[in-house]
Give the backbone structure.
Amino acid sequence: MTQARSQLIPLDSAGTYHCVQRCVRRAFLCGIDHYTNQSFEHRKQWVEDRMHLVAECFAAAIHAYAVMSNHLHVVLQLDPAAVYSWSDQDVAMRWVRLFPPREDSDQACFLKERALVSNPQRLAIIRHRLGNLSWLMKCLAEPIARKANHEDSCKGRFWEGRFKSQLLCDDRALLAAMAYVDLNPIRAGMTKRLDHSRHTSVHERLQLLKKKPAALQQPLQPIAGTLIALLPIRLADYLELVQWTGRQVRPDKRGAIPDNAPNILKQFENKPERWTIRVKAIGAGYWRVVGEAQDLISMAERLNQRWLKGIGIALALTKNS
């Protein structure tokens, strides 16, 4: 039975999430349709550009993303309380950036901002939306669907009705989800190198390094967004961890764990093989919550359930510690 998202993720609560939005019927609407040989690769850049805009307008930080041919992954952090520190003018300006007037001129935008500021009730609703996960995903996905339908001269759904989300309970779950997302093109056989994994956050980080090499030794920062959220790992360590993880998830390397695991891995796992299990489990082992066994047990109790997918894996990882 489908679980109401409001039960899994209480409204107005801060959290970190892995979200997946799939194209309808899992069709290749953002890549090369091998049935018709038509290319929709340019739409991946649409999604990437829109994602950066949404991150700048919401109380969010995007830690990782991957725009695939028939689905989208986003790892993001949301802090609904942050919107209450913004001025009315700031809230109105962010909303107008997301939903500009038909006449997209500076004057028309100014008038729409002024109208919003003069309407406290409407502004309160907008302020709340700018800290809401469902509205963030709506503002990301809906304009892409409209633009694609206009390009195809058709109507109907572009994305599936509901996006899937996983609550990430700690930094270890967050880093595992980030690695899982950044390695999506490699697992799909689209490329064998991170620097060739276009339309992913790891590719964007590598491109930024060419302009700012000093960032390699700095704490890992979100790839986009308004929240300041530094992770307990350097960018250099994260890139090394993703490179190493990518070598483990190859089908021909199943169960083969080399001795040269990154030193940073010891900060999160005592046994390297458990890290690989955690990353792989993001896609199929866990369902709505990713974390330690007690995190999943507590969530199951809150939902009045006896079991939650992923508890078995979490218990096994704890047992083998």
The longest helix spans residues 133-152. The chain has two domains: 14-79+133-319, 84-129. The chain has 13 helices and ten strands.
